[in-house]
Specification:
Elements (H helix, E strand, L loop, with lengths): L1 H18 L9 H21 L6
Length: about 55
């Protein structure tokens, strides 16, 4: 059950990251920071989910 919660969190993080427009030269610092933090969250969630799926 724990792993399905992590998978939902990964899906949610991917969804949020997809909602932010691609980076561009004119981005303000807040948009850059938000995108970076979401990418970091997604990376950490994926790393934590490795090996948790039972097969």
């Amino acid at each position: 059950m724990l792993s399905s919660g992590r998978m939902q969190s990964i899906d949610e993080a991917e969804y949020l990251l997809d909602q932010i427009p691609p980076p561009s030269e004119g981005d303000d610092e807040l948009a850059k920071k938000l995108r970076s933090r979401l990418q970091e969250l997604l990376t950490n969630l994926r790393a934590g989910a490795e090996g948790t799926a039972s097969g």
